[in-house]
Design a protein that fits this description.
CATH class of the domain at 2-208: Alpha Beta
Oligomer: single chain
Number of helices: 28
Structural class: alpha/beta
CATH architecture of the domain at 2-208: 3-Layer(aba) Sandwich
CATH superfamily of the domain at 2-208: P-loop containing nucleotide triphosphate hydrolases
Strand content: 15-25%
Number of strands: 21
Distance between the termini: 55 Å
Strand order of the largest sheet: 4-3-5-2-6-7-1-8
CATH topology of the domain at 2-208: Rossmann fold
Radius of gyration: 27 Å
DNA sequence: GAGCACTGC
């Protein structure tokens, strides 16, 4: 938890410094204090309540204390959820200080890998994912008197699921075994409040003033509705940033860009204005005419992040060039100017091609307002937007599409079914924003394929109940359970852990160092035969864990991210604990293995990844067998890159869509291993899986055929769209190749 | 011959 601690400290030093100057009585000057009576009365009289207020209103720290003082904690804990772990920890720290008690006693927190609560805990801060886990174990949330969902406007996947479940609990009166009915408070910035209120039985809304300063918004008109090239906005951002630096009064600048490469390019350009210094190879302070330039993104080493929070020397201006991480996760103090690129990198799931695509898209108006707000935390500020008013009107949606409408829903559907919500279609389950039906159907199909739900009507299976206990993507869960049944989970646990954490391979910016790192990485592959990326991950895990020197030093010497390795070790421990509990159950499956030992790992992987089977097609390309028939390429980071022609059938962990459609982390398999599983990919009619849900059992054959045909047509359209996107990025040669492949595939299909 | 935002269990 070192890294979390660093971030927690960064936030803490700021707030505790403030607190030292003021007495605890200053809490009474918080904007929320005036609403204390009104809030307590509203909670007492209603099952649901919405509290809205900007940053600095004190709602997160004060409302739970008010409720506690008013006796709401007598019949159960007051649970407060946060979308992020650091937030849950820091807020709990702060409230325990305010209440003058030891953290973990009356006030505690729970996040993954760290439960800091006790029997005496009455106010519990936690991540929303943790509460969802608790709900799986205790459907009535009997430990709690009150649930507060904080930061609801962020619409995290878990918060959205909790919305529906808590509303259901109220509707179904599942709270009958309670002494006192459960109270639910939703805390949100001012977004769609009427809709939220309507959703929660027309509950009252209490508005609390914030404590922020005015931010002047300036449109620079450098980007219009027609500008979509990402190379464009980096230049424009740099231009505006330099303008701000030259012409504006003292005050630090926060620049919002889309990702690491754009940030590095922008920093390079900023430096070029003075002299050619490559900041990446030298961590000493550099300044461009009184400007310190600091990149900030998630995968950056923590020791470099520390400098972000330090104030600049007198007379020097600090400029932080950051990803969206600075919008919510990290607070940089002293910011007076924000430069907004207007774009964000977002992972979107497309059910029609079954691919996750990471794409650069315009932000929403509410996200732009959130970014601007970062300039008004300590004094009045200014926000420079590089895009025009027309871009704002035409290209930016009012609100971000919530995560539940953008991601694969397999895990969500499994969770709901395990909570006795068999009917997952919107006509039954209350989604605040309903995912498209085809998202739900695709999730049902995948769940069925992994044996998590039943063929008839999609009821959850025993295996599905085991699966929900493991915090892993469904395919990987299935593979791990297979391994456990065969008694070889030690082989798969480290692989599952390594696949759960961010990429462990360090890719240095310096070309020479990059070669050294690459050589080191290739050794890991060749040590275990050089033809299985999963085994390579297992190899790294084992070596790092058993390294005689400190594992941290070992990681540095081998160009491996130590931070990610530490997380992988924690994940492996947790998965191992969950698995051994499951194995103690009487009906946990036990199977015999009849193949050779060298096949064991791959055979287990097949049981979960047979939905990710591909077969070699023309040249170095592969064709997926999941029904989409997408053409994919092996990513150059794979040990099997440039060994394509030696391969026939393979399974892969993930797809990346960048300049081509790449598959990453893969291994060869034999057709016999998946032969019996493959029909499962096509045999099921997804509408049958959900027919009970939609109460359409009587629906006649014709209508179903029609629907199936529409789905097929859409899949075809989507393939064309995906290709069009690639054409833009590729050169003419590869475009014509792609087109040829596409036409060939189309012809082959029509023959069938 | 690539280059991947951010969370969470």
């Amino acid at each position: 938890l070192t890294d979390l601690a660093v971030k927690a400290m960064a936030g803490k030093s700021k707030s505790s410094g403030k607190r030292e100057q003021k007495e605890i009585s200053s809490l009474e000057h918080l904007p929320i204090h005036r609403h204390k009576k009104q809030l307590l009365q509203a909670v007492a009289e209603n099952p649901f309540l919405i509290v809205t207020g900007e940053t600095g209103s004190g709602k997160t720290t004060q409302l739970p204390q008010y409720l506690y003082q008013a006796g709401f904690g007598k019949h159960g804990m007051i649970g407060v959820t946060q979308p992020r772990r650091v937030a849950a920890i820091t807020v709990a720290q702060r409230v325990s200080e305010e209440m003058n008690c030891i953290l973990g006693k009356e006030v505690g927190y729970q996040v993954r890998f760290d439960d800091c609560t006790s029997k005496s805990t009455v106010i519990k801060y936690m991540t929303d994912g943790c509460l969802l886990r608790e709900l799986l174990a205790d459907h009535g949330l009997s430990q709690y008197s009150t649930i507060i969902l904080d930061e609801a406007h962020e619409r995290s996947l878990s918060t959205d699921v909790l919305f529906g479940l808590l509303k259901n609990m109220f509707k179904q009166k599942k709270t009958q075994d309670r002494k006192v009915p459960l109270k639910v408070v939703i805390m949100s910035a001012t977004l769609d409040l009427d809709k939220l209120s309507e959703f929660f039985e027309n509950c009252p809304i209490v508005s609390v003033a914030g404590r922020t300063y005015p931010v002047t918004e300036v449109h620079c008109d450098l980007i219009g509705p027609k500008d979509t090239e990402s190379s464009l906005f980096v230049k424009e951002v740099v231009k505006v940033t330099l303008d701000v630096h030259m012409n504006e009064e003292a005050g630090d600048i926060l620049v919002f860009l889309t990702g690491q490469s754009e940030i590095e390019r922008a920093c390079d350009l900023l430096f070029q204005k003075a002299e050619a210094i490559d900041y990446r190879y030298d961590v000493q302070d550099h300044s461009v005419e009184g400007l310190i330039i600091l990149p900030l993104y998630g995968s950056m080493p923590t020791d470099q992040q520390r400098r972000i929070f330090q104030p600049p020397p007198p007379g020097i201006r600090k400029c932080v060039v950051a990803t969206n991480i600075a919008a919510t996760s990290l607070t940089v103090s002293g910011i007076r100017y924000v430069v907004d690129s207007g774009f964000v990198k977002q992972l979107n799931h497309n059910p029609r091609v079954g691919l996750d695509i990471l794409e650069v898209v315009p932000i929403s108006k509410s996200e732009a307002m959130q970014r601007a707000g970062r300039a008004g935390r300590t004094s009045a500020g200014k926000c420079y937007r590089i895009y025009s008013k027309e871009f704002w009107r035409k290209c930016m949606p009012d609100h971000m599409v919530p995560e539940i409408q953008r991601t694969s829903l397999t895990t969500v559907i499994l969770t709901l079914k395990c909570l006795a919500v068999h009917n997952v279609i919107s006509t039954n389950f209350p989604y605040l924003d309903c995912p498209e039906e085809r998202h739900i159907l695709e999730a049902l199909k995948q769940l069925y394929q992994l044996c998590g739900c039943d063929h008839r009507w999609g009821y959850v299976t025993r295996l599905g109940q085991f699966m929900v206990e493991l915090p892993l993507p469904p395919g990987l869960t299935r593979a791990l359970l297979k391994a456990a049944a065969l008694g070889c989970e030690d082989l798969l646990l480290p692989v599952a852990a390594m696949l759960s954490v961010e990429n462990v391979f360090i890719r240095p910016g310096h070309p020479e160092k990059q070669k050294v790192a690459e050589r080191r990485h290739r050794e890991f592959a060749s040590q275990t035969g050089g033809c299985n990326d999963f085994t390579t991950l297992l190899n790294i895990f084992k070596q790092c864990k058993s390294s005689s020197a400190s594992p941290a030093n070992w990681s540095r010497d081998h160009w491996i991210h130590w931070r990610a390795m530490k997380t992988a070790f924690s994940v492996e421990t947790q998965l191992s604990e969950v698995l051994s509990k499951l194995k103690q159950l009487k009906d946990f499956p036990v199977e015999e293995f009849d193949g050779s030992k060298s096949e064991l790992l791959r055979r287990c992987l097949c049981s979960g990844y047979f939905t990710n089977v591909a077969r070699r097609s023309v040249g170095k390309t592969f064709c997926t067998m999941d029904g989409h028939g997408s053409v994919v390429h092996i990513h150059p980071s794979s040990a099997l890159y440039e060994k394509e022609t030696q391969l026939d059938w393979i399974i892969f962990h993930e797809v990346l869509v960048t300049s081509k459609v790449y598959i990453r982390t893969l291994c060869p398999i034999k057709y016999e291993w998946v032969k019996d599983l493959l029909p499962k990919l096509h045999e099921i009619d997804v509408h049958e899986l959900s027919s009970v849900a939609r109460e359409e059992q009587t629906e006649d054959e014709m209508a179903r055929w029609e629907k199936r045909e529409i789905v097929k047509q859409e899949a075809g359209k989507m393939a064309e769209e995906a290709l069009k996107k690639l054409e833009k990025r590729n050169d003419e040669k590869s475009v014509s190749d792609a087109r040829a492949r596409y036409l060939q595939r189309k012809q082959e299909r029509s023959k069938d």
